[in-house]
Design goal:
Distance between the termini: 31 Å
Helix content: 25-40%
Strand content: 25-35%
Number of strands: 20
Radius of gyration: 24 Å
Structural class: alpha+beta
Shape: globular
Number of helices: 11
Length: about 400
């Protein structure tokens, strides 16, 4: 079920002072009241790659390092987290090879044995970030809804199949493993916002502080966009934000405590309103994926705003909309451009003339823009060649025009 675009709500989470390591800044998120009837723990997979079955003869191949398992109770009573473990693949005597694990569905209920010996299906295994990325990969995956003359036979018959997007393993992000190992985990911390070069790269929130302590190391196994890699490779060490308290007016410990709390409040206001505005102030379209008692697992897509931050992700919220779990992925400019073009084409029933009119460019410029975004295969070759001739030498490679990303 899709909903109208809405903003992410971090009610119940407080922004704590940031910690800095080189070009990486981690901003802790602290819960005053942890959620006790939903708990997350990690399941590691030793295989190098995975094949995920989506049903209806659809599947995709991807790097799947781990899954999250959510346990919830129907009566609100606490449930225990099993924790997390880290380890490399076992030594094998056989020649080097790539193992493959088959995952049935992105989110699947599992049967487990309760401490009293009975069985229950109040456990959900889901692949973190894969729910969100699959939503992006399947964006208008069917291709043109009307077989206009400009579209190729491949586009009409197969849509955008096959479609691939690139992401980077957290272990390749310079300094991330060191930052996670050295940074202090705050009391009550249930999440973190990860910045590289002071650009928001990812957000991660869990229900309970014990869950965060168990899953904190898993951030190095997650998938990240190319911006994270480039910023940590090219940026110089960042300046730390340091609070200052003026001496005059401080006459007691109570005055000092009040001044410190004022500085913390000012930092949180600056962070939420400025540094994280690209995620928190933006509007997203949510789609419910699975219901778990009073909780709902959903994924969301951005509005694909050109030249701005665009994050996709997944959430678990309770019946009041309170955020229990969040994981996000920042799209690159090229990924944003593809999402923007596909969304505008779909909004105009894939008619080039109407889409070009909305974007303020000619059909030829729109066609070249599709080609530069890696979607040129959707157009017939003779149509694309004609667009290139119309653009002339200056526009054949750029796919420019008004509003081009």
């Amino acid at each position: 079920m899709s909903t109208a675009p809405t903003a992410l709500d971090l009610t119940g989470l407080r922004t704590a002072p940031a910690q800095l390591w080189g070009a990486i800044r981690l901003v802790p998120l602290v819960r005053e009241q942890p959620i006790t009837d939903l708990r997350l723990h990690e399941r590691l997979y030793p295989e190098d790659a995975g094949l995920v079955e989506l049903g209806r003869r659809a599947s995709y191949a991807s790097y799947v390092p781990h899954a999250f398992v959510a346990d919830w109770s129907s009566d609100g009573s606490p449930v225990a987290a099993y924790g997390s473990w880290l380890g490399g693949p076992a030594e094998r005597a056989a020649p080097p090879s790539m193992d493959l694990r088959l995952h049935q569905r992105l989110a699947r209920r599992e049967k487990h044995t309760r401490p009293d010996g009975g069985t229950s299906r109040r456990r959900l295994r889901f692949l973190p970030l894969h729910l969100a990325l699959e939503g992006f990969l399947s964006l208008h995956f069917g291709g043109p809804t009307i077989a206009w003359a400009e579209w190729s036979q491949q586009a009409v018959r197969s849509g955008l199949s096959p479609r691939a997007e690139e992401a980077l393993l957290g272990g390749r992000v310079r300094g991330l493993a060191d930052a996670l190992r050295h940074f202090e985990i705050h009391p009550g911390q249930c999440g973190v916002l990860l910045y590289t070069g002071d650009a928001l790269a990812a957000a991660f929130v869990v229900p309970h502080p014990e869950d965060y302590r168990a899953l904190h190391p898993s951030l190095v196994q997650d998938l990240y966009g190319e911006l994270v890699y480039h910023y940590t490779s090219l940026m110089l060490p960042l300046d730390d934000f340091r609070a200052t308290i003026a001496g005059p007016g401080i006459r007691s410990l109570a005055d000092l405590r009040a001044a410190a709390e004022e500085q913390e409040s000012a930092w949180a206001h600056f962070h939420d309103g400025t540094m994280a505005a690209g995620l928190l102030a933006a509007r997203h379209t949510f789609r419910a994926v699975h219901r778990m008692g009073r909780f709902t697992l959903s994924r969301f897509l951005p509005e694909f705003r050109l030249k701005q931050e665009n994050h996709l992700g997944e959430t678990i919220t309770d019946e009041h909309g309170r955020l229990a779990y969040l994981k996000t992925f920042r799209l690159s400019e090229n990924q944003t451009r593809r999402g923007h073009l596909l969304s505008r084409l779909a909004a105009h029933d894939w008619r080039l003339s109407a889409t070009a009119a909305e974007l303020g460019c000619t059909e030829a410029q729109l066609g070249l823009r599709l080609a530069s975004a890696g979607l040129g295969f959707l157009l017939r070759q003779d149509v694309l060649d004609g667009f290139r001739r119309q653009a002339g030498p200056a526009g054949r490679g750029a796919g420019g025009g008004p509003g081009a990303a």
